[in-house]
Design goal:
The protein is α+β, with helices and mostly antiparallel strands. It is built from nine helices and five strands, in the order H-H-H-E-E-H-H-E-H-H-E-E-H-H. Strands 3-5-4 form a three-stranded antiparallel β-sheet. A two-stranded antiparallel sheet has the order 1-2.
């Protein structure tokens, strides 16, 4: 193997140049470092505030640049918009591998009753517990409490009727768990009916 002379350019340069130890790192690298170490989606404005020297649109451009680099270098992940913020997610191609890896967490899976209740709340929110029970045909107080304990459901207000019963809705954690940017990304009910 022959050594490169100091004037010889390497055949392929790094997509993001290695920063000088004394210099401020590239904005894309800074955004990447923050996103790698967070377990919650962060909005562009929040990222800009953390960085202290960039605007939200600069952050968006940096994320676009990172995703281009990830695609060009065949990475298994991308920065995705989730629940109103940005988070690093693996590509769907790796779903089976990751599912196998996370089988040990099976105890955290939702029961069929919890999934059914969560779906009703997601599509009908804000919704009364009485309406959930009317749709399901069974008492659902315990299931709703379990979903609240997991921070997938929250109280979003009170109904303007006798007794002012509580109204329930989904949380940001619900969006994160199901990889949704917002509730508009829920599958259409007609699409679900077509698959059954």
């Amino acid at each position: 193997m022959t050594a490169l002379s100091s004037t010889t350019e390497p055949e392929t340069a790094d997509p993001i140049a290695k920063p000088d130890p004394g210099a401020t790192p590239d904005l894309a690298l800074q955004v990447e470092a923050i996103l790698i170490t967070t377990d919650r989606p962060l909005a562009s404005k929040k990222l800009a505030k953390i960085l202290g020297h960039a605007a939200a649109h600069d952050v968006d451009q940096a994320i676009e640049r990172l995703n281009t680099i990830y695609a060009e270098t065949g990475r298994s992940f991308r920065v995705e918009r989730i629940a109103g913020g940005w988070q690093i997610h693996t590509l769907p191609t790796f779903r089976k591998i990751l599912a196998a890896h996370h089988r040990a967490r099976a105890e955290t899976r939702l029961t069929p009753a919890a999934i059914e209740t969560l779906a009703i709340i997601a599509y009908r929110q804000p919704i009364l517990r009485a309406d959930i029970e009317s749709i399901r045909g069974v008492a659902s107080g315990e299931v709703v409490r379990g979903l609240m304990d997991r921070k997938l459901v929250k109280i979003v207000g009170r109904a303007e009727e006798l007794g002012r019963p509580m109204l329930y809705g989904t949380t940001r954690q619900f969006l994160e768990l199901f990889g949704l940017a917002d509730l508009k990304d829920l599958p259409k009910i007609e699409e679900l009916q077509g698959k059954s």
